[in-house]
Structure formats: structure tokens, C-alpha cells
Amino acid sequence: MLRKSIPLFMPRFDAVDALRGFAMVWMTAFHFCFDLNHFGFWQQDFYRDPTWTWQRTLILSLFLFCAGLGQAIAVAQGQSWSRFWRRWVQVVGCALLVTAGSWLMYPQTFIYFGVLHGIALMLIIARLTTRWGGWLWILGGVAIATKFIAAYAMDMGAMAHFSDMFNAPRLNWLGLITRKPITEDYVPLLPWLGVMWWGVAGGAWLSSRGAGRLSWPLPVAMKPLAILGRWSLSYYLLHQPLMIGALMAVGWLVN
Q1: Long-range CB pairs of 32-36, under 8 A, 24+ apart, other chains included
Q2: pTM (predicted TM-score)
Q3: Is the pLDDT at 112 greater than 90, yes or no?
Q4: Could you state, in order of their start, the residue ranges of all structural domains in the chain?
């Protein structure tokens, strides 16, 4: 019996890559402003000012939606589990580098479960549930609602005895917290799995309607975004060290 061959290189869709690239540019601008604040060039409150907290929420949502979208497209194209695990190991490796780097800069508030850590866990769940189709829209909403319902219940006393347990570092990665942990980046399973599930649902829906739904032509001006989106993991890992190094050099020259 002949086996269906799977192409070694999966086709890329410029529109999807450009959406991811747009998220990268927005994230870079956000992190540059954060770094300006850190080095004292421009004082802002990134932890309480809605201008910045809402931007973080939107940027992260776009990232996770794109990750879910990409996972659904990869499965529809026949991506093997071995290829999935190779990419997953890269994500985990980069997450560990982020932890190490943040510990050097912020030893008291280092990143132990940030965006890459969260994505690594969520990608496994997304891969296992990709075939659930339209149910993922509902499950995504449930995942988002569960976080807020549980937090409200613990605050109101209905589940108060669980509060300390879920707030502790060993379980706060689930997201069922009543107080945010002190860390530079925190992306727990809930509610963010819901956003990735919506991306998976959207990607599965588009893939089921043929490649034409994903092959939208891009204006020439947006082509660089598509190129950037294809190198998102490498870019994510390098952009902050480069910006921090440049600002440190500027500070040294000014002083």
C-alpha cells in the first residue's frame, strides 16, 4: 500500500506571516519604550498605566492567536509529530534562555513562566485538540471565563481555601490566581489558552476551505512583515539584547 507523501517544506502563507510580523513590530516598539523606562530615559508606569497594560494584552493576544493559527495550518498540511517536537524543543530552549537572561538582569523578578514558557505548554494542548474544529471557539471562551470566575470565587470566599495553593509558584502557571506574581513576564495557561484555541479554530476553519482562503496577496509595502514573521522565534530572542545593548551604549556615551 502506498503512503501519502508529505512535502519536506510546507508552503508559507504571506498573509499569516505578515500578521505575525506586525505583532513583532508592535512588540518591539513596546519593549523599546519599556527599556527607555528601565534606563531612566523616559519614565512610565508599565505595571499600572492602562496605556501600557492594554497594549501588552493586545500584543500577547495577537501572538497567541497567530501561534494557534499556525498550528492548525501545520496540522492541515500534514506536519508530523517528529517535526512538531523539533520546533517545540526550539521554543523550550529559547524559553530557558529568556529565564537565564532575565535572572541576570532582574534576579528578584526573573521570568520563570513567560510567553515562551506558556506557548510551549499551550502548543502541546493545541496540537492534541486541533481536530476538535468549531468546539474550540466554545472551549476558548470557557478557558477565558474560567480564569475570571475562579478568581472571583476565591476573592469572595467561596474557594478561599484554594487561594494560597493556586497563588504559590508551583501552581500559579495555571493562572487561577488572586494576585499577580512578581515577575517581569507572566503568561499562564488560563486565560491565554483560550486565545490560542481561538487561533486554532480560525486556522482550522480557513484550512478546511482551501489554500485560497489563506493565500491573500500582500501589498509590496507589507512584504517585509511577512519575512519578519517567518523568523519570529529568532527575532524574539535577539531583539531585546540588541536594544538593551544599544541603550546601555547610549547611556555610557551620554554620561
Answers
A1: 32/243, 35/240, 35/243, 35/244, 35/247, 36/247
A2: 0.89
A3: yes
A4: 45-216
